[in-house]
UniProtKB/TrEMBL annotation:
Residues 18-477 form the Aldehyde dehydrogenase domain. The keyword NAD applies. GO terms for biological process: L-valine catabolic process; thymine catabolic process. This is methylmalonate-semialdehyde dehydrogenase (CoA acylating). Keywords: NAD, Oxidoreductase. Its EC number is 1.2.1.27. The lineage of its organism: Bacteria, Pseudomonadati, Pseudomonadota, Alphaproteobacteria, Sphingomonadales. GO terms for molecular function: methylmalonate-semialdehyde dehydrogenase (acylating, NAD) activity. CDD domains: ALDH_F6_MMSDH. It comes from Parasphingopyxis lamellibrachiae.
């Protein structure tokens, strides 16, 4: 059986007495095993990082960027291999797996411009004979802990920017689909990255705790579910680290009466059911404004859901594949039952779906609920499966309030032809990322990604200039080159640059 090892000091490394099974979600069989490491493997990675990081930080930014350029070309050359590997462990269809890799590469492209992003600021003549300038310096050794649902994109969000800024990066990927992160680290080495600057250690809570408690690790970026994000944020910051921790989501799509419903239904089908709903920027809640809009939307949604093709992840005609594990499938189906028990109307039931020839795969058919109410647990919590919930709102204010008051605030979308309504919505909604007639408003790499409320802890976002800020510390220099003549100032009074 294939074994997935750590990647420490530029080489595959075994270590850890426990192992985790990696499933093939299409067949329901175990396809590989990954070693779960401990503080011992982490220490080896930290030692290698400590050896390599000072020289990397001293390498000029243009040379660091050249490694990113070479890495981008290598990932492009290996796109098919990476997408197939990713799809085989995660279950998302191949085209979607390519998108996962590409959205990460977008951040690598941003990192190629790091010399420009790190230039700093300069003020000549901030006072008499005084200049002020600032520089951004790397933090040293930093770490990223990533979820199963974007095993290529999210690691690249983090290490692309962190490494370009001059840090050594230790990645702890999800133990459910850890192979692509290791391949990415191998390709970074091939691109010319010195050993010890990008390392991968596998593990579960034990490894996460070791990272959070290690004195040499200065910053931690986490993406995963909310309870764990909160835990990571608390423990990491208590230990004096800089922490950004992104959590779960429950994104709403507001549908105004004037929206183009055919377009909305097309967008919703992809955003609610694509990747089997396992996206933090999925759109699992739709809020039609007015009963008439709700009835018309529901009528159009039914044939669109009926037309969805669930298949193995290598089926080019499939809209979505299996969910990641049998355990996750059970969890999603339990939420569907909770929705029924709470009194929502289950219009389409995706439970009990079986794909011929793949009866043991972790497939779930699409589900649709109507008449979901704000007090229901199945609405308050994240389901993370192919389940769309309709919540009917009486008017714009009620719809705005639903999205704003929900515990999660990752993304939200409004569908309308009314520019004023859209503008008002974007400015007032209490959510971090907003789409206007865009169902999955994941910002491009040179902007920044991050939610609000229980969707993110810490105050700095992923990638873009926010990422540069997170992975660096700023130093500000005030300089004077006296010409020898007495300046006549009073050294006992705080300088006012007067
Ligand atoms: P998860 O929280 O189970 O795992 C995330 C990481 O935490 C993994 O590396 C895992 O090994 C580690 N971990 C698991 N249990 C732990 C514990 N008890 N203590 C410490 N670490 C632990 O998340 P997941 O199921 O892999 O990913 C799905 C979740 O991630 C969803 O909630 C989704 O919304 C969220 N997500 C959020 C964003 C975002 O940007 N907000 C993006 C993608 C995914």
């Amino acid at each position: 059986m294939r074994a997935v090892e750590h990647f420490i000091g530029g080489n595959a490394a075994s270590g850890g007495t426990r192992q985790h099974e990696i499933w093939d979600p299409n067949s329901g069989e175990v396809q590989a095993k990954v070693s779960l490491g401990t503080g011992e493997e982490l220490q080896k990675a930290v030692d290698a990082a400590n050896n390599a990081q000072p020289a990397w930080a001293a390498t000029n930014p243009q040379k660091r960027a050249r490694v990113m350029f070479a890495f981008k070309a290598l990932v492009e050359a290996h796109m098919d291999e990476l997408a197939e590997l990713l799809s085989s462990e995660h279950g998302k269809v191949i085209a979607d797996a390519q998108g996962d890799v590409q959205r990460g590469l977008d951040v690598i492209e941003f990192a190629c411009g790091i010399p420009h992003a790190l230039k700093g600021e300069y003020t000549q003549g901030a006072g008499p004979g005084i200049d002020v300038y600032s520089m951004r310096q790397p933090l040293g050794i930093v770490a990223g802990i990533t979820p199963f649902n974007f095993p290529a994109m999210i690691p690249m969000w983090m290490f692309g920017v962190a490494i370009a800024c001059g840090n050594a990066f230790i990645l702890k990927p999800s133990e459910r689909d850890p192979s692509v992160p290791v391949r990415l680290a191998e390709l970074m080495k091939e691109a010319g990255l010195p050993d010890g600057i990008l390392q991968v250690v596998h593990g579960d809570k034990q490894m996460v705790d070791a990272i959070l408690d290690h004195d040499d690790i200065k910053a931690v970026s986490f993406v995963g579910s909310t309870d764990i994000a909160h835990y990571v944020y608390q423990r990491g910051t208590e230990n004096g680290k800089r922490v950004q921790a992104m959590g779960g989501a429950k994104n709403h799509g507001i549908v105004m009466p004037d929206a183009d419903l055919d377009q909305v239904v097309n967008d919703l089908a992809g955003a609610a059911f694509g990747s089997a709903g396992e996206r933090c920027m999925a759109l699992p809640v739709v809020v039609p404004v007015g009963n008439d809009t709700a009835d018309r939307l529901r009528e159009k949604l039914l044939p669109a859901i009926d037309a969805l093709r669930v298949g193995v992840s290598t089926d080019v005609d499939a809209h979505y594949g299996p969910v990641v594990t049998a355990e996750h499938k059970q969890r999603v189906e339990n939420w569907i039952q909770t929705g029924v028990d709470e009194g929502a109307e289950l219009v389409v039931d995706g439970r009990g779906f079986s794909l011929q020839g793949h009866e043991e795969g972790f497939f779930i058919g699409p589900s649709l609920f109507d008449h979901v109410k704000p007090g229901m647990e199945s609405y308050k919590e994240e389901i993370f499966g192919p389940v769309l919930q309709i919540l009917r709102a009486g008017d714009f204010e009620e719809a705005l309030g639903l999205a704003s008051d929900h515990q999660y605030g990752n993304g939200v979308a409004i569908f309308t032809r009314n520019g004023h309504a859209a503008r008002e919505f974007a400015s007032r909604v209490n959510v971090g990322m907003v789409g206007i007639n865009v169902p999955i408003p994941v910002p491009v790499a040179y902007h920044t990604f991050g939610g609000w409320k229980n969707s993110a802890f810490g105050d700095t976002n992923q990638h873009g200039m926010e990422g540069v800020k997170f992975w660096t510390k700023i130093k500000t220099i005030t300089q004077r080159w006296p010409d020898g003549s007495p300046d006549g100032g009073n050294a006992f009074v705080i300088p006012t640059m007067g």
